[in-house]
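Convert to structure. Protein one:
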Amino acid sequence: MSTKHGREPLFFYALMALAMVSWGGSWVVAKWASGYPAEVTAFWRFVLNALSLLPILLLRVESLSLPRGARLWTILSAVALAVYNVLFLTAMKHGSGGYGGVLVPTLNPLFSYVIAAAFLSHRLDRRMLAALVLGLLGGVLQILGPAFSLASFARPENLILTAAAAVYALLTHASARAQRSLSVFRYSFWTSALCAAFLLPLALPSGPFDFPSLGIPFWVDAGYLALAAGTFGTTLYFSAASRIGAARASNFAFLVPVSALVLAFLFLGERPAWTSVVGGAVSVAAVLAAHRSGGRGQSDSRS
């Protein structure tokens, strides 16, 4: 179809795919940034992210005020987001970017479903339970690796990445509560500002304001995480989602692990283990099955 309306959905599908690639790329950049203290990188990521959101809020003529009903959930979201980012960046000091980019985005929706069932009175039918078990088995396969070694569970990157996925699942539920009375941009501004405030005391011993020692590569990495994967990716995602619908948009989230593997291969020279590919595919299929059976609690895959 050559009409404007025929081309329009393809344009927004392309925007959605670009947003997913920007999030997948964050795993490559996090690996590049692994030489810097995680708390310093996270601190500047959120400072830059908060500053970049101010013009968007002004253009949208949105108030910067934080409604009383959203304060607790926004603060809890910021705490979870700060912890997640420190874990995410620390894990890259031990493991590969492509591996992390598959394991966390495929595990956190599964953990989110488990939290919904355990604490939010969400009932699981047999189909949903089977999907969750299958998805978690996919995660176990990824962690075991080609050697099928149980000792892999104790490797630092696996412990940290699994914890990161669980924390992000908690963040998903807190963020859903907070955004009942906040737009995604005002929510992102406040969580970024609060994250920066929470992380500053942790970052100070590592010299976050020692600009000469940080160097240009640091600012490129922090800038990508804040602007490309943060403000740019989020804006693209929600702009496209508003046109193609939330259900279709959610299916694009699984481009994140695919793009993380491809970009890690291209820019880091990482060759993915077959267990990452197969285990990730199993987990993705399980989450899609759970989502289509009417389950709630699916998280996004931003990093």
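Protein two, convert as well:
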Amino acid sequence: MTGARAAKAPAAIAVFAVLAAGCMWGSIGVFVRYLDGLGYSPLTVVFSRMSLAAVLLGGFLLLTGRRRLFCVRRRDVWVMAAAGVSSAVLLNLFYSISIVMNALSLASILLATAPIFVVALSAPLFRERVTTRKVAAMIVVFGGSILTSGVVGAGAAGAAGAPGGGFSPLGVLVGLLGALGWAMLGIMSRVALNRGYHALTINFYTFFFGAMGCAPFADFALLSSTVAAAPLKMSVFLLAHTLISALLPYILYTYGMRFMETGTAAILASVDPVFAAALGFFIYGERPDAVMLTGMAMVLAGLAALNLPQNPKARKK
């Protein structure tokens, strides 16, 4: 009995880690709103957190004598680069374009399709089983994300009148490419884990290559001028932005993936719209309507169902 409990402990911690990562990603909007008000472009925002995360994590590895974690086999460099570029550049670039071409609610729904890509790709690449429970949870969570986004109910009227309201085939394609970029972070991280790399190695190079991919598009003059204008305030803000939006959630997510399937981790991380809606209420006074609350409940119910203990007979099938 003790051994069974010990075996379940890492799995339970992994679930908590991925859920925590999803919640932290749900807070990105709070930081982006402020930086957007200062004139930061989306890729300048991403560069600021990716570059600082690489510096902080790299410094930690050096100070703790873990220099061996910098070592990557030459044939595996492309895996680390793909993880960084897909999560930093492709996701944010296509998502930003999607927001312009589509209503914001539609853009968020298209991004929420990322777990579908992950589950679909993980089956042939990693031989992960596409179980009835996983598909059902994914459908419920995705449906809840649609309702939480505000595209149905009172929020629909605002979406229809928003700049870029409605949709076009090209806009939908761009939004789906953003979701694919998000999905590739999990896929490439799984490839690296399967090749024996430590989670911190994967994350350091994800941040490093992500920052390098964003660098050509970043506004260094604006970044330096805003920091110079308020050194203490901006330094603390950018540090918090990096820790909460990048460093901690990436590490927690990669850690959690060690103990669960790639598709399961992607679905669990879909808690982010619920947390984002909660932050919107407490920070900005954005009151969710009944439809949005129903969507939030659906997301939580889908995540709970995904983690219910399975019948031993069902596992054998």
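The chain has a mean pLDDT of 86. The chain has one domain: 24-65+72-309.
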